[in-house]
Amino acid sequence: MINNKQEQIVLGFDFGTKRIGVAVGQTVTQSASPLTTVPAKEGIPQQGVIQKLIKRWQPDALIVGIPCHMDGSDQPITWAARKFIVWLKQEFDIPVYEMDERLSTKDARRNLFDEGGFKALQGGQIDRVAAQLILQNWLDQQQESLK
């Protein structure tokens, strides 16, 4: 648990240089759902959109997927994701947690394709489903740590 509140809302982010997927989850049901995709330019999101999401959902924590190689080492995009985390911490008074996102985009793409073929892979769906997978993994880890 993040704090003493029984029900907590969390937002998860799948960071990308062109798009940032967003998912919402909550601790009562331990579930995450895809929410939206925020356009970004060279890793810089449309900050007003992020601010509106934070204001609307009033999350207790933010979870950001950190891209890394399969061996755990940093990728060129890793520093940009951490820069995004710094911005979130400076902009909002909300705890921000990192989550390993290895294979989340690949898994999201496979899940979407299995459900709806190529049409399901359009319109930023992959990014928001990847954010859902990142957030769901984080929620599962929190639940495991309570056992």
Looking at this protein, list some descriptive labels.
single chain, 147 residues, alpha/beta, Nucleotidyltransferase, domain 5, six-stranded mixed sheet, 4 helices, 6 strands, globular
Question: Which SSEs are present, and which pair or pack?
Answer:
Layout: E1 9-14, E2 19-26, E3 31-41, E4 44-45, H1 47-57, E5 61-66, H2 78-91, E6 96-100, H3 104-116, H4 125-146
Parallel strand pairs: 1-5, 5-6
Antiparallel strand pairs: 1-2, 2-3, 3-4
Explain what you see.
The protein is an alpha/beta fold and 147 residues long. The protein has one domain (9-146): Nucleotidyltransferase, domain 5. It has four helices and six strands; from the N terminus they run ββββαβαβαα. It has helices at residues 47-57, 78-91, 104-116, 125-146, and strands at residues 9-14, 19-26, 31-41, 44-45, 61-66, 96-100. Strand 3 and strand 4 (44-45) form a beta hairpin.
State which percent range the strand residues make up: 25-35%
Number of helices: 4
Following the backbone from N to C, one meets helices and strands in this order, namely: EEEEHEHEHH
Please describe the biggest sheet, giving its number of strands, its sense, and whether it closes into a barrel: 6 strands, mixed
Question: Per CATH, which architecture?
Answer: 2-Layer Sandwich
CATH topology: Nucleotidyltransferase, domain 5
- Arithmetic mean pLDDT: 81
**DSSP helix fraction:** 40-55%
